[in-house]
Structures are given as C-alpha cells and as structure tokens.
Amino acid sequence: MQNLYMNSSAADPSPVGLRERKKAKTRTLLREQAMRLFREQGYAATTIEQIAEAAEVSPSTFFRYFGTKEDVVLADDIDPLLLQALSEQPLDRGPIAVVRGAIEATMGQLSDEDRRREQERHALMLTVPELRAAFMDEFRRNVDMLADAMAERFDRKPDDFEMRVFAGAVIGAALSVFEHRDKDLNQTVRALKFLEAGMPL
Predict the structure, then answer these.
(1) Taking CA 19 as the corner, what is the angle to CA 5 and CA 114, rounded to the nearest 5 degrees?
(2) Is 2 part of any domain?
(3) N or C: which end of the chain has fewer CB within 10 A?
(4) Domain check: are 140 and 191 in the same one?
(5) Segments in the chain forming alpha helices (H)
(6) How far apart are CA 115 and CA 94, in angstroms?
(7) How many C-beta neighbours within 10 Å does residue 107 have?
(8) Residue 57 has pLDDT above 90, yes or no
(9) Are residues 57 and 87 in the same domain?
(10) What's the pTM?
(11) Which residues constitute the domain of residue 96?
(12) What confidence category does residue 2 fall into, taking pLDDT thresholds of 50, 70 and 90?
C-alpha cells in the first residue's frame, strides 16, 4: 500500500528519480522528527533548529522543504492523491458523487501508519491556537483547488459563480466535521453523503 509521505517512484532508476526519492526521504524525516518533538516537548517549545538537528540537516535545508514550522503540520500530502482520484472518477457521476468517490478512493490508499499520522496532524491543528488560525487561512486555497479541478472536469471556468459555490459548499461540509477527523478520517465522506442526499433533517 502506498505511503503518502514517501511520494516517489521506486521503479524509476534514473538520476532524476533517485534525486526525487532522496528529497522525499529528507522531507519525510524532517516531518517525522518534528512530530516526535512536538509530542515530547510541545509545539511551541520546538524550534526549527531542533527539528533540523534531529533530522541531521541544516536549518537552511529545512527551509527548502517547509517555509515555516507551521507548514510541517499544515502541508497536506493527500492533495495530489485526491486530485488524481478526481480525474479518474467515472464520467457519468454527478459533482458531489465525484468528490465523494475521489475521497473514498484516496482514503483507501492510505496505510494504517498514514492514517495515524493524519490523525495526529489534525489533532495538532485543533489544539494549537496558531495552527488552528493558520488552518482557517487554508479555506480559500482548498476552495480554489477544488473549483479548478471540477471546472476542468465539467468544462467550466473555475471562477464561475456556481462552481465557486459548489466548491465552497463541499469544503464547508468538510470543515464542519473537521473536529471529529482526528478520530475518524471518514467523517468527510459521511458529510458529503448527507450533502448529496439534499441534507434531509
């Protein structure tokens, strides 16, 4: 099963493939050491210098992979998998069914370790004030990403009124259950099923 934190192709023996795999390993190591330090001494008490030292790289190397300490937690490695799954959904599906199917397919690719890491990441975003505030700033980026992907699929413009409202509704549904995702990553699928059913109350 694919490890989402090691996004590289083991079948590619070319120098470019080797470089990409090395970069992926360094990024994974930085993230693993950062999360370990966050658990052991707390998010606020952990510095970029400590993370770099634990990963045996320089602080300047850290900044090649993450712009800030917050980015270690906020960076969502599931996005590329989700966009790929969106493009692979059957053409006869409606918009919400497409998104739901893509999320279900993406969740199915995650190993138990991937799920544990995602749940730990979500828990941090919920409990660390500066991370929670920064996460809310991601709302617009997520809406843009989904609107772009769905506009391409349905031959629409990403800034169409209906496309923006659709993307906002889907991301809003996901955000509404975010506080439960540290326990169950499938809460988003449940929210989309409710949205797809017309939100019967």
Answers:
(1) 5
(2) no
(3) C
(4) yes
(5) 15-41, 48-54, 59-65, 69-74, 78-87, 95-109, 112-127, 129-136, 138-153, 161-176, 187-196
(6) 28
(7) 19
(8) yes
(9) no
(10) 0.75
(11) 76-196
(12) very low
DSSP 180: G
CA–CA dist 101, 152 (Å, integer) = 17
Same domain, 32 and 96: no
Q: How many domains are contained in the chain?
A: 2
Tokens of 166: 């659709």
Please list, in sequence order, all residues whose beta carbon lies within 8 angstroms of the beta carbon of residue 125, skipping any fewer than 6 positions away: 73, 74, 131, 132, 135
My answer on whether 95 and 52 are in the same domain is no
| Dihedral sign from CA coordinates of 119, 23, 72, 144 | negative
Distances (CA, A) of 13 to 6, 17, 22, 79, 153: 16, 6, 12, 26, 33
Cβ-contact 131, 43 below 8 angstroms? yes
Considering the domain boundaries, does residue 186 fall inside one? yes
Instruction: Name all contacts of 126-129 with Cβ < 8 Å and 24+ positions apart.
Output: 126/178, 126/179, 126/182, 128/43, 128/44, 128/73
Q: Is residue 32 part of a domain?
A: yes
What confidence tens digit (pLDDT) does each residue in 153-162 have? Answer: 999 998 999 9
Question: Both 41 and 100 in a single domain?
Answer: no
Identity of the amino acid at 154: F
6 is a domain residue: no
Co-location of 136 and 192 in the same domain: yes
